[in-house]
Amino acid sequence: MGSDKGCIFCKIARGEMETEKVAESDSFLAIKDTHPVAEGHVLVMPKQHWVTLLDIPDTYGKELVWFTKKVSEKLLEEKGVEGFNVVMNNLEAADQVVPHAHIHVIPRREGDGVSVLSGQ
Length: 120
Known about the structure:
Strand 1 and strand 2 form a beta hairpin. The chain is α+β, with helices and mostly antiparallel strands. It has a single domain, classed as 2-Layer Sandwich (HIT family, subunit A), CATH 3.30.428.10. A five-stranded antiparallel sheet has the order 1-2-3-5-4, with helices on one face.
């Protein structure tokens, strides 16, 4: 499995750092975001170190979508969650902070005031 020794998400995937896991598959991991924009905000990440969506091999695409859907369904089952956003920042210019591919699944509630797009 490809990993980057200093990458915080690789450390989490290797079990070297504690985190609140939401779901796990052979290739992907979902954890609670430590700086959530909404209650229940989850990060979906590959266990291997890929920096952006473009780096994730196509052979993982179906599992990534399936896994993200399962995490989203789980959030919708939580009391008060009425919708969700799926967001992926790729590279610094798009506000990617951690250089390890990850998808934000953000639970939404009517009137929560959360804006996931800049300038809105």
